[in-house]
What we know:
2 copies of one chain form a homodimer. Chain A is of the alpha/beta class and 185 residues long.
Amino acid sequence: MLRIVAITGMPGAGKSTAAEALVKAGWRRVVMGDVIRAETKRRGLELDAKGTGEVMRLLRKERGESAVADLCLDEIARTGAERVVVDGIRSLAEVDAFRKKAAVLLVAVDASPSRRYGLLKERGRKDDPMTKEMFQERDLRELGVGIGEAIALADETVSNEHESTTGLEGEMKRVVDQWVAHELS
Amino acid sequence: MLRIVAITGMPGAGKSTAAEALVKAGWRRVVMGDVIRAETKRRGLELDAKGTGEVMRLLRKERGESAVADLCLDEIARTGAERVVVDGIRSLAEVDAFRKKAAVLLVAVDASPSRRYGLLKERGRKDDPMTKEMFQERDLRELGVGIGEAIALADETVSNEHESTTGLEGEMKRVVDQWVAHELS
Lengths: 185, 185
């Protein structure tokens, strides 16, 4: 049976760290942002926030609200993996698409705007916002897609407000182990 | 200086329990739903879902998206309280209204849909949903007002997924004490 831990959360909240905790425990990781970035590259657009945002918008328009989730499911089927962590859920439509094909635990990784801004500054990825204004614009763009609803209806919420990397990894591992144990019992 | 702990969260997540933890520590509690019910009574309408819904609509039309928050602020000013917990935040417009007048800590109390449904069944308040369908409709109504955005941009998130009442109270007290200590330092 395919099990998917679907991770949602605002930019910079710590989704990658949470996902890596499961990778260390043998789960296969699929990053929704990577799927979008690959598609952005394929379409010849810049790999910045504007380009990826535009491709996300186009994909949804062409293939529906769950477009990126469907691309991820194609990739998961190709690998044959049975324990997969999908990182970067942005809407309930995506969650529903995964639930049609797998047992899903939707986990929200949460942190305050100021904490997330600090973490993004540390990370400094090419599409990360450089100023507070850009950060707030990106937040609003994510909320516009419906990420707030996915966060609000999560099965589990993990706060990264006061956690170290190790603390967040441990907390993530704990909720997923509990889920798997419960499903198996 | 006026300090407001603003609590948001989906129906049944445990907002009242979280607020009561602060009341025990001397904070004054203002329930946004009570403010709406008082205004409904003042206008001579029935205190049912139709009456309160109509008053909410009128209030927003007359005074804007933050109307209920503004009424709460009037009440807070009347009492002269300096530490207030406001229970029932539904949108970022309300949070912004509070931030104009006070130092605000926005706390999201989170629990999964299945956990919240169970807690609401236990509570059995007159306006609580009786069936899974009514529960989901109410969730969607709250999300439609923008509660997901308030949850996504919270300063602190407290999970009530696996907590006892005492556990949730302790966790709430901890994040608020930390905030006050940090602001005073």
